[in-house]
Write the C-alpha cells for this entry.
Amino acid sequence: MDVKALQVTHKTLTEEGYNIVDPGVYAHIASIEEDGDAFSVKITMTEPYYPIEGLFGTGLVHPAMEDPAIFNDGLLDTINNDYLSGPYKVDNWDSAQKVLTVVPNENWWGEKPLLDRITFRQMEASAARAAVRFNGLNWTEEVPGSMMLMPFAIDYQDNYPTETGAEAAKKILTDAGYSQNGDYLANSSGNAKFAITTFSDDPVSSATAQTIVQQMKAAGIECNIDNQPDANFSTVIGNKEYDVTFSGYGILGEDASGSAEYFYHSATYNGIGTDEIDAMCERLRTIESMEERNALSNEIEKKHMAEVATMIPIINGPEIWFCKTTLANYGAFLFARPYPNPSAYINAGWVKE
C-alpha cells in the first residue's frame, strides 16, 4: 500500500468516468504526493477539513482500478483476488446461487486465521424473522431524538422539536383545524392520512409498517401501506412517488459532523432545505474540535427538524444474530465490523469440545 494506491483512490472518487455515489472527503483533496519515498505521503487539502481521521479509512482501492472499465465492471459476477487483501481469499463465487466460499490467504501478512474454509450464503429477506426486532424479544427502547449519534454517545441530545406520542400528535392536528370524525381526525378536505411505502416481502419492513399503521390510528391519522416490488425502488424513490417511506443505515460513531452534512445539506436532497442550514453544514468541516463540531451538528439537526422535517428517527433497534451455540467469535460485532477489522475473521471458529 503506497502513494499510488492513495492517488488512484482519489482519482476514482473525483474524476469523470467512475461510477460512484459520494466522494466524501476526497473531494476536498488538492494533491497527493510522495514525501521522500512511496510510503511517505504529503496530502494537500483545498480547504481545512475535519475530522482528518476519516481520510483514507477503509475505502482504498487497488491501483488497477485506475482503469474505469475495471473499476465499474471488473468485479461484476466475478471476484479477482489480485484486487483484494485480507486473512481469507475467495475460493469460489457462485453468482447464481449467491454462495461465496473463502479459504486462508497465503499472502496475508498478519495472524493466520483459525478456519480452513468459510462459506457464506445470501438468503432472501423473507427468511428473516419479523420477531428479530418487534415482538417476542426482550427489547425496548426510547424513541431516539437524533439521527446522528446513538443515545449513549457523549454529545448526544434529543433534538426532536416537539413531544411525541398519540396525544401530542392529536394536539398538533386539532390546533391546525382538524376535529374527530369517527376513528380519525379530519378537516374539510377529508381525513388526516398518508400512505407508507414498502418494498418487496421483507417481513421486518412489513412488521414496521404495520406497527406504524396502528400507532397512526391511535393518533387519529389514517395510514395505508403501499407495497411495491423491489424492482420499483429506484423509480419510486428517485421520482419521490411516495408519502412516507423508511430505511436504515450503518452504525454511527462519536463524531456527528459527517451525518449532519449528509442528512441536512440541501445538496443531498435536490435543493430541499434552507440556505442558512447549508451554510452551517459547510462550516462544520472547518472546525478542528470534535466537541465544537458536535455542538454545531446538534444545532443543525434541531433547526432542520423544526423547519424542514424531511426525516425523523423512529428506532435504533437491536442487532440480533442467530448462531449455533458452538460458533465462536462471530455474530453481533457492534463496532467491530469485519471489513475494517481482520481479527473478526481471524478469530472466528468453533468452540473446542
